[in-house]
Amino acid sequence: MTTAGVVLCGGHSSRFGAPKALAPLLGKPAAAHLLDAMTRADLRPVVAVTGEGGAPAEALRALGYSLVIDDTPLRPSGASGPLCGVVAALGELECPVVFWPVDCPVPPPALLVELAAGSGAVSVEGNPLCARLEPAHLPEALAMLSQGRTGVRDLLVQLGASTLAKARVNAHDPHALHTCCFNTPQELHAAEERVRATRALER
After folding, report:
1. From 172's CA, which of 37, 49, 148, 164 has a CA 20 to 30 Å away?
2. Which residues are paired to 5 by β-bridges?
3. Are 100 and 130 in contact (CB under 8 A)?
4. Would strands 46-50 and 4-8 be described as parallel, antiparallel, or unpaired?
5. pLDDT tens digits for 151-167?
6. Residue (of 68, 63, 132) closest to 96 by Cα position
7. pTM of the shown model
8. At 129, which helix (H) or strand (E)?
9. Residue 101: Cβ within 10 Å count
10. How far apart are CA 14 and CA 80, in angstroms?
């Protein structure tokens, strides 16, 4: 069975001031880096989830993404937050899904492969939005939304999700690029410098 890759792009980017999916990192948008990593990890389809206030759908299509629009009727009225994007994707896809947030744009493809190879609900320690979930988890996610709970971390706890072993994460990502994330322009600049330095070491 194939595993899909889903990039969560629906946040309002209030601290960044513009859609983080389109933030330039080493000459191309953050979302383009993730599309490349997921494609190299043989995740398919690679889908971006966005919605009102998130990254523009047409810009994501132009990068080569398939889209899921987070306006699904599965979402309870008034609910917002990253769990809504997870629900939208699980409601559209019929295979396991590796989720990744667009503001952590440079995970090594090998780490994505490791995550995809898991069973059931699996997460990467430190960021609950970096996780593998399955369509069978949709009812529990919907139940949480109906209770006004919108955190993905709570869903992972409820599902009894396993965590990728640190040794496996370090083997695939010795420079911890999966933790290279940004919420502000200053953090984007720092992330860019970190990626540049890491790639220089790897040459």
Report:
1. 49
2. 46, 98
3. yes
4. parallel
5. 899 999 999 999 999 99
6. 132
7. 0.94
8. strand 127-133
9. 22
10. 14
